[in-house]
């Protein structure tokens, strides 16, 4: 049996109302009186029924509440983000709900529900969302899609006071004319937009530089929005306030742009032989107009070669050209992972040097000599150097001399150090073993060692006797039919070659 409404004059859920055909035998939703004393007092004060206390079975139907007070659906968000509604089997009332509508009683007893004040955070969020929506709509409508869009809509989008227009298939020009009785007509301002939407501005026949348009355009100086065009039109509407000052740096920048285009074109022209030189010139001009020193690879390579040839000469050249500081070049060389101990890289380097030599030029002399050095440790190429590497020296003992192995072409200009060996009190047998290793290294690269030349030091004599029983010759490790001569002085070697030649 449905619960009957206790509001005076209301017949909801009574037998007579349920039998009414207009009601379709539908029961009205009812709500019990609240247990909260404050809410109960509000309900009793609003219901026009004096000296009456509700019982546990007393109810009020939904007709006496505003529809906004009745909660009939439950909202929830799915994992996909979609918000769904589900009907409640038993509708509920919101916390502020109070019966205020009494249709079967005089109108003055009913009242409209008070307007609820929205939560400040929610109002702020709604305001931000509204502003965001307005901004998104403006930005989407402000975009210039392409040059065709510009030609089609610029008259409707931009106010063009004091501007004349010339539309072409590949560009759009806005210009202003000045009429003078004595000098005739002249163009005092021009705004030219190319088909790729790049913008160029001319004031009194002087083109504005790119940096003078950075206040409104991006670095590529392409028109992207109608608001940019409107600002440009408004900004350059009068030219009295725009005096174009052409500085030396501006003139260099313009010339640099022309040379850069020439360099780009030269990259596709195989007949142009001065691409590297042109790149260095462009880099020099760039250093003049730039606030930061960022060098091109060609400039760094040239500077590094000059510095390696002569640091003093490099200092003089830096007085005339803008080149990297010596410390920068030193930092580059210090980061290179090269070392005299790296046999693989040394072999690749030496093989690349001799690959263009003729068979006659590959006949070489191996010269051995000692270099006295200061006993100390250094950090070079990410490695600590300075220790002696011969077996007869004590552990962690500093090197006092470096044995240098150098090859010289007998019939060419090849002169190259192939091995540097830091030692301390080296023995003759150790030097003999290292000499054989160097001979094998040189001949594996493609050269042929004919003589080994050194000075008449006691250790060198011991080394010769260790290698050869007679101290004069020994079989070539690569071809035992040939001999390698052991000589003490270079002029003797020259005499031998003179006689055999």
From TrEMBL:
InterPro entries: THAP_domain_protein (IPR052224), THAP_Znf (IPR006612), THAP_Znf_sf (IPR038441), TNP-like_RNaseH_N (IPR048365). The keyword Zinc-finger applies. GO terms for molecular function: DNA binding; zinc ion binding. PROSITE patterns: ZF_THAP. Keywords: DNA-binding, Metal-binding, Zinc, Zinc-finger. Residues 1-102 form the THAP-type domain. PANTHER family: AGAP005574-PA, THAP-TYPE DOMAIN-CONTAINING PROTEIN. This is THAP-type domain-containing protein.
